[in-house]
Structure prediction request, 986 residues.
Amino acid sequence: MAKEIKELTPRAENFSRWYQDLVVKADLAENSAVRGCMVIKPYGYAIWEKMQQELDRMFKETGHVNAYFPLFIPKSFLSKEADHVEGFAKECAVVTHYRLKNSPDGKGVIVDPDAKLEEELIVRPTSETIIWNTYKNWIQSYRDLPILCNQWANVVRWEMRTRLFLRTAEFLWQEGHTAHATREEAEAEAHQMLEVYAAFAENFMAVPVLKGVKSASERFAGAVETFAIEALMQDGKALQAGTSHFLGQNFAKAFDVMFTAKNGTQDYVWATSWGVSTRLMGALVMTHSDDNGLVLPPKLAPYQVVIVPIYKNEEQLSRINEKVAGITAKLRSSGISVKYDHSDNKKPGWKFAEYELKGVPVRLAMGGRDLENNTVEVARRDTLTKETVSCDNIEQYVGQLLDDIQKNIFKKAFDYRAANTVKVDSYDEFKVQIEKGGFILAHWDGTPETEELVKEETKATIRCIPLEGDQTPGKCMVTGKPSARRVVFARAY
Amino acid sequence: MAKEIKELTPRAENFSRWYQDLVVKADLAENSAVRGCMVIKPYGYAIWEKMQQELDRMFKETGHVNAYFPLFIPKSFLSKEADHVEGFAKECAVVTHYRLKNSPDGKGVIVDPDAKLEEELIVRPTSETIIWNTYKNWIQSYRDLPILCNQWANVVRWEMRTRLFLRTAEFLWQEGHTAHATREEAEAEAHQMLEVYAAFAENFMAVPVLKGVKSASERFAGAVETFAIEALMQDGKALQAGTSHFLGQNFAKAFDVMFTAKNGTQDYVWATSWGVSTRLMGALVMTHSDDNGLVLPPKLAPYQVVIVPIYKNEEQLSRINEKVAGITAKLRSSGISVKYDHSDNKKPGWKFAEYELKGVPVRLAMGGRDLENNTVEVARRDTLTKETVSCDNIEQYVGQLLDDIQKNIFKKAFDYRAANTVKVDSYDEFKVQIEKGGFILAHWDGTPETEELVKEETKATIRCIPLEGDQTPGKCMVTGKPSARRVVFARAY
Prediction:
């Protein structure tokens, strides 16, 4: 498409606009003609595909298999689990008819009133109900357990205020749904998947995350316990990046799914569900990127290296092409993905800015002097520094550099979070601190009333009760009542 | 789940029931609680994943990238292309509301009448309209072309009579949508993707296909020309396994997508679209499988080899386990996927039947005598033959066997098709022959009237006008009018 100058609003000026600008200008996604639905563009989708690949591998390594369940959920299914319907039945896309017909006025088509469904269908906002209705037929005895299914799917939640990747009416995700013979096994599964998500976020996205338990009011509708990973964005707001739910026997009871145990007794089946979505794309962007554009972790970049030739004439270009072919071959044989951009309708400076915007981790530039000296200029996206290095062993140099970048951006994000996590002991101090953003570790009396008060007065929510860290008891910063341990407050996406 | 005896209806008795039985009993898919929507079970989904992987690789090798477009299409978009709306607007899922609320009688939830959409949304039956509405913003000049996008997605077509994989209300597919500066380039793309589909069907699915052009009445709604691959099932019925459409400028005109050419002139953009779906699963099953169950091509089998121990006591089992560990390691290091089933609650005979049903290409069985002799019993699923071979170089033996099976099932299907393809010169002969099933090569005068007559009287349709083969002109079998070449008739799924 026609390229205009792609200036980004600086983060300090307006973080939200910077984000929106960047997602669109770096060709990650855009709003579609359908309210609240996004188009994920090829460059953005390529990152999502890499995320999918790694997650899918991790799910399979932990014994899970993929399956696919229907897009539609009969309206009555949603009502079967009392909490679930409160959480999900409200804002959803409802299919009421199954046919259009030509308009009598000859203009376009209208809904055919004769094609009304007996029972309306809901476009799945999440699939516990349709899946547990299916599992009912799959499970008779302990021998049929565990069931460890995952599905990659689209879901729809009718959000009124949407933002690309972070909150859209339709989004892509995976949802794991497992069935177990014992409570212990289901709890272990929920914990295991939280660990998988945390490992993925930290090792691939280079996003440090807190692992914790949600308070009752932030729990998934229908869960006994919700575990989450929470990340801190550069504007000081928290982002819930993935959740893993221990569902107890709630859905088994709602859909009457019982099994015969080894000892012959009958019991309801224990369940978990867990999911991450294209929201991770938002977390990725808001954790690492800067005023020049995206900064991508090498492990998820669609291509890790871009090579740009700088030439005076065709003859020089053809010599550079030849030299680059050798470099490209060496990089690729080391498992490094490379794009060579020798398009002749754009200047090198334009290309440099473009690949900075796109967050390509390493840029190599080769000009006439490099040809003479057997060198290449290497620029790293995270620090924006450059150096000239020999073409000999370039694949080792770049391989090492990619590792360094992966580690460096994690460390940067980790240090940012450390610098923006504070302990607070009084509610007055809390009110001041919350305006600065970041995670606040504070004591809470464990009641939903106090949680609600803090939320109303400060817009901060309890992000999680951390599974790790300081377990010292204390007194609630608001009520002074006993607190089992500090919890994490923040304003959140 | 509890395993009952899994008897299949023999093909000769009732092919349609055999198919339905097999899909369910081999754990490929089952009907869901939502009318017309299927659940794709883990074993079936694993085959679909392998198909996706190969196709995705082939798409990327031919320069395509993946993207994602919205699930919903505004109703008015469907009407913009006159033929398209006739083909797709009629049987579709219509979203009219975006909220439910608690029922006043306290029982469950009802559609909130206050949450009616201004314009209804259609769950995509195919995405040309929403995609060309998007491409409008992506294309200004020839520099923005070509666009070579594919998406993996679910689509919904409200079918009244459904059959697992073959015709379901919701199905999974990929749809490629490309935009080009010239007619020639778009036509070449449509041809290229037909070749990709044919290569995939023959080399991976082991399903021989005819490549051809559709007659006007069988064309995709909105296409200038539809190319298709057609396969012949074991009951003598044809199955359209994939289509590639040259769309001309129809969608560019409907959505006003113009570009500035190199010479400065303005023109509408040229388009193609192409797709294959989970219907391929049906083609796979109906081409190769037999009365004992599935027969899977080794290249798409979730696991290529299953190993079953036959033992008298625990001590013998532990020696077999040890021996099998070595075999498994050797097979895996040769890139062969293996499952070792030493579960102790099922007898070997039960396992043999189960893996036959599941179509695992090669079964190894090891008993006490094998241990003594350093041998293993090898059974191939396609021929149901067995032999005892040495464990030395077992990986080479099995590797070769898998290649042989892949080739053999293709050859078997190819020979079946050859034996069931006949030339017919009179309409009387045609009426007799069509009852026997198979492909009939006959002359046709090229008119929709004759095509319609044949369809009404014999239920046979023109599957395609082949791109290859005998090009001799002749006289229409029905009207005696001139015919450019023989076309392929068959009854079809």
